[in-house]
Design goal:
The protein is mainly beta. The chain is built from two helices and eight strands, in the order βαβββαββββ. It has one domain (about 1-110). The radius of gyration is 14 Å and the shape is globular.
Length: about 120
């Protein structure tokens, strides 16, 4: 999956994308948005090349509405072009499960057993 996002062209933003586990907010509906909030440089980007079925095997949807997923996350990015980043790692936080891996080493994470089989 790739994230298209316009970050400021300054030293702080350049250093930010070199970090692991950048805090973010993931909003998934018809589109998949990733939002960076203060104290980070505020920005909103769109994820491309994502598969809803694969995502929902790893991260359960919440209630309906515009966003089926609206979760705090941690993301690690690798620049591939101007304003385009490969998502190397992505995890979403669930109150009942903790951090749930979605992407690990740039591929879909192994789905976790989140619910009892009963």
């Amino acid at each position: 999956m790739r994230l298209k996002i316009e970050l400021p062209r300054n030293l702080l933003a350049q250093q930010l994308v070199r970090q692991s586990d950048i805090p973010c907010v993931c909003r998934i509906g018809r589109t998949f948005e990733i939002r960076l909030d203060a104290p980070l440089p505020p920005a909103v980007g769109t994820v491309e090349d994502w598969d809803r079925d694969a995502l929902e095997e790893r991260a359960p949807a919440g209630a309906g509405g515009e966003w089926t997923h609206h979760r705090n996350g941690r993301i690690t990015l690798r620049p591939v072009a101007e304003g385009v980043y490969e998502i190397e790692h992505l995890a979403l936080f669930y109150e009942g499960f903790g951090w749930v891996p979605v992407i690990v080493d740039s591929v879909d994470a192994q789905p976790m057993q989140l619910w009892d089989e009963e």
